[in-house]
Write a structure and sequence with these properties.
It is a single chain. With 292 residues, the chain is an alpha/beta fold. It contains six helices and 14 strands. α3 runs antiparallel to α4. The longest helix has 25 residues.
Length: 292
């Protein structure tokens, strides 16, 4: 079980995490967000302009804290890694207050029958410009380049700060927890491919949307790939013992799990099973999964 550090947390404060980057913590802690969503302001604090990455929830105090961190600079772009409700809802009000364009990931609101798989997504997100892989935004002394990393969501992007070698990883890679992959939009195969994509890069550190900076990024990503492969092997072993519904995997795979996270664990297992199904290793009969 993940332990959230004791309060007080630096909510609402502009913390310098490297010369071109300030971090502002939103007041939305939870078992899914750790101490809250971290918004980043990128640019020379003494310069004329900046970018805001993952503006976070639409909370007036948090928006005021972002504007205070901007400190009179022109916001060249409000950039969102993806459109979960803890990342992008502040984009629209911040744009209205400052006149800044919303730039970054594509909009995404799922509309499907059955359980509300779209409920975690922000339906208000309306970008002025969608960045494709390798496309960038520039300001005075800073450059941010989009790195497409689908998997956690189909529209997830990271942003590389070319001047320092840092990568803003959103929810794709976090130091405090593994990323949750929730079908139907989340895709485990895409997620693993995106991790391999980061392994081929030479970023010197990661700034994620939740948790501390990651100073050994390749080591962490290598471990995350190994963790996912271990989960996949656990699922195959358990299927070899007996066919079972998704809920039947949880007691063996997630011992001591916070009850509030059981739903997320079931979705993660489902994502692995769907990926195994696509690869011909598993199949389902109604709600029961078995080896193919």
């Amino acid at each position: 079980m993940v332990t959230i550090p004791p309060q007080p947390w630096p909510t609402g404060l502009a913390e310098a995490v490297e010369p071109l980057v300030l971090r502002v913590l939103a007041p939305n802690p939870s078992p899914y967000t750790f101490t809250g969503t971290q918004t980043y302001v990128v640019g020379d604090p003494r310069g004329p302009d900046c970018a805001v990455i993952d503006p976070g929830p639409n909370e007036p105090d948090h928006i005021a804290a972002i504007i205070a961190a901007v400190a009179g600079r022109t916001i060249v772009a409000i950039m969102c890694t993806h459109t979960h409700r803890d990342h992008s809802p502040a984009a629209a009000p911040l744009a209205e207050l400052t006149g800044a364009p919303i730039v970054g990931c594509a909009p995404l609101v799922l509309q499907v029958d059955g359980p509300r798989s779209d409920e975690a997504f922000d339906p208000t997100y309306a970008p002025d410009r969608v960045l494709v892989d390798g496309e960038g935004m520039r300001g005075t002394g800073w450059t941010l380049t989009a790195v497409a990393t689908p998997g956690h969501t189909s529209n997830h992007q990271c942003f590389a700060l070319e001047e320092s070698g840092a990568l803003f990883t959103g929810d794709h890679v976090m130091g405090w927890s593994t990323s949750v992959v929730i079908p139907p939009d989340g895709d485990m195969g895409d997620y693993m491919a995106s991790l391999e994509k980061l392994m081929a890069r030479d970023d010197v550190r990661y700034h994620s949307a939740h948790g501390a900076a990651i100073e050994k990024p390749k080591q962490l990503v290598r471990g995350m790939i190994g963790h996912r492969r271990q989960r996949e092997n656990q699922i195959l072993r358990l299927l070899g013992e007996a066919a079972r519904p998704v809920s039947g995997f949880i007691p063996d795979m997630y011992k001591g799990l916070d009850p509030r996270l059981i739903g997320a664990a079931e979705m993660s297992v489902t994502a692995h099973l769907i990926d195994l199904e696509k690869r011909g290793a598993a199949r389902r009969d109604s709600e029961v999964w078995r080896l193919a």
